[in-house]
Amino acid sequence: PTFKPQLGDEIEALSFVDGAILSWWKGSVKRIVGDFVYVTYPEEGDEFEEILELARVRKPSTEPCLTSNLKEISVDIPSDLREISRDEKQHESFAQTAKLMGARASDDGAHLVLVGTKEAIEMAKLILN
């Protein structure tokens, strides 16, 4: 790895914090041994810490955190459109047009679940209306 963290550095670690999906989490380097880093996660409390390979640690990103901007909402699908809404390709195309992260039909097929920024969701609602 090209990034060589130092003791006390603020970093981002690729991990499963709190059983969540694999993602980059803000952490702090507490110890380095060979190709391993002992990381704590201040935002998760003092009790959460782990040992990671150096390859799973990077400098903190200067970009805003995308997930803090993401929203998920469900909108009703009119009954006459529910059959066509089962086609996942339609959702992909719609998501791209509205600049959503994703769109899918709910399990019951009565709702369209939209995931994206507030602006993308507003655009999707305009398109749907």
Describe this structure as you would to a colleague.
Helix content is 17%, strand content 36%. A hairpin with a 5-residue loop joins β7 and β8 (111-117). The mean pLDDT is 84. With 129 residues, it is an alpha+beta fold. It is elongated. α1 (88-98) packs across α2 (118-128). The strands form two sheets. A five-stranded antiparallel β-sheet has the order 4-3-2-1-5, with no helix packed on it. A three-stranded antiparallel β-sheet has the order 6-8-7. The protein has two helices and eight strands.
Helix content: 10-25%
Report on the biggest sheet.
5 strands, antiparallel
Number of strands: 8
- Helix/strand-derived category reads alpha+beta
Terminal Cα span: 49 Å
Rg calculated over all Cα atoms: 20 Å
Helical region count? 2
Overall spatial form: elongated
Low-confidence stretches: none
Order of helices and strands: EEEEEEHEEH
User: DSSP strand (E) fraction?
Assistant: 35-45%
Mean pLDDT: 84
Strand order of the largest sheet: 4-3-2-1-5
